[in-house]
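FIELD: query
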Amino acid sequence: MQKLYTSGDWSFFLSEVFHPRFLAPTGHYVQWKLANDWDDYNEMTHATRFFDEAQKKPTLEVDSHLLMKGEELKGALFIIHGDLPSVESRYPIPEPEKSLILKYFHIMERGQGVGQQWLKDVIMPHYIKLGFTDIYLSSSHPKSFGFYEKFGEQMASYTSASDNRLLTREGKCFRIAIE
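FIELD: result
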C-alpha cells in the first residue's frame, strides 16, 4: 500500500488491488441502516458481486483507497478505470479513457469533513496527475446528494427496487470535473 496523504490522525492510502476486508466500512454502514430501519438494500452484497465481476474483466482496474485512523480502517472508496461502459449504463461517459467511476464511498466516522478533504486533497490531485479529467458516480442515499453537488453536477436520475422489492430507491448520477 502507498500512503498518499496524512492529516492529523488520518492517513490516506492507495492499494492497487482489492481485498474483501476493505469493505468493512461498507458493512458498518449496512449495520447502521438496519439499526435505523433505513432500507433493505444491502451494499455489502452488491459490492461483493460488483468486485467479483470486475476482477474477471481484464479491461478494468480497481484502485482501493483506504482511510486509516491510527491502525484502524475507518473508510474506503473505490475508483474504477478502464472499460467503464462495461460497468455503467445509466449515463454516457464521453471520454472513458480519461474518466473514472467512484464506487462504495463509506466512512465510519462521518460529519467531520474527512470525506470532503479526501476527495479534494487526495483523490482529485492523485488522478489529475495521472491525466484523468472526470469522476462519475451514482448514489441512492439522499443525504449524500448535497455532498456530491458541492463537487460536480447531476447528470441523471434513476429509480430501482430495493432488494426485497418493498421500496423504490431514488438515485442520482453525478459528474465531477477534476481537470
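FIELD: remark
Helices lie at 24-35, 43-55, 114-129, 142-151.
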